[in-house]
């Protein structure tokens, strides 16, 4: 059975939700998936024990979580030796105009870490107003008003989600196809 690590860093939880959806999609294809938050890794953790790895991070004020950057930097040799993917969750990725900015964040991440994933996914994030303090809520509302012209409706808590779940599913399928090709596993037979 092909073992896949889905590792993530998250601020208010949207990246965790995206990681969970990716993990579920890979499990449906027959993979053995470990979905873990980077700050909760055991001391003896070895990424080399997996056949493939996906790492995700969110963008907050122009930067990724330092824990994800540190993980990628310290594990770059192992990551560069196996099939890998990186996914980034941000408000920049929610609009066509912001995609170039989102790509710039990834380029800075790759330069800083020395890790060059085989697949990259950019997903719109969420505005978790219910989890923000007063100042952050005010600032995020101003940023959203300036940068996003078509804001989806808020949920019951007042939060707004920009994630395109079809894109997330397509990314998981693309990564699975790549892993299957790289490891020589027939499509849909990862459990055999």
UniProtKB/TrEMBL annotation:
UniProt domain Flavodoxin-like: residue ranges? 4-170
Pfam families named in the record: Flavodoxin_5 (PF12724)
Residue ranges the record marks as coiled coil: none
What would be an example GO MF term here?
electron transfer activity
Q: Which PROSITE patterns match?
A: FLAVODOXIN, FLAVODOXIN_LIKE
BP terms from Gene Ontology: heme biosynthetic process
Q: In which domain of life is the source organism classified?
A: Archaea
The cross-references to SUPFAM superfamilies, in alphabetical order and at most eight, read:
Flavoproteins (SSF52218)
The identity of this protein, by name, is: Menaquinone-dependent protoporphyrinogen oxidase
């Amino acid at each position: 059975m092909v073992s896949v690590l889905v590792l993530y860093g998250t601020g208010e939880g949207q990246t965790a939700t995206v990681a969970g959806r990716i993990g579920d999609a890979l499990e449906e294809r027959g993979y053995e998936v470990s979905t873990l938050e980077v700050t909760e890794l055991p001391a003896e953790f070895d990424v080399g024990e997996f056949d493939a790895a996906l790492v995700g991070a969110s963008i907050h004020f122009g930067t990724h979580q330092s824990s994800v950057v540190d993980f990628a930097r310290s594990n770059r040799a192992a990551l560069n030796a196996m099939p890998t993917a990186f996914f980034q969750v941000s408000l920049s990725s929610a609009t066509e105009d912001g995609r170039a900015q989102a790509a710039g964040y990834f380029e800075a991440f790759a330069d800083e870490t020395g890790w060059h994933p085989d697949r990259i996914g950019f997903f719109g994030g969420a505005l978790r107003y219910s989890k923000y303090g007063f100042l952050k809520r005010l600032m995020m509302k101003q940023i959203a008003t300036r940068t996003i012209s078509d804001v989806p409706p808020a949920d019951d808590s007042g939060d707004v989600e920009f994630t395109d779940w079809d894109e997330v599913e397509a990314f998981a399928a693309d990564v699975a196809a790549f892993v299957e090709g790289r490891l020589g596993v027939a499509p849909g037979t990862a459990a055999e």
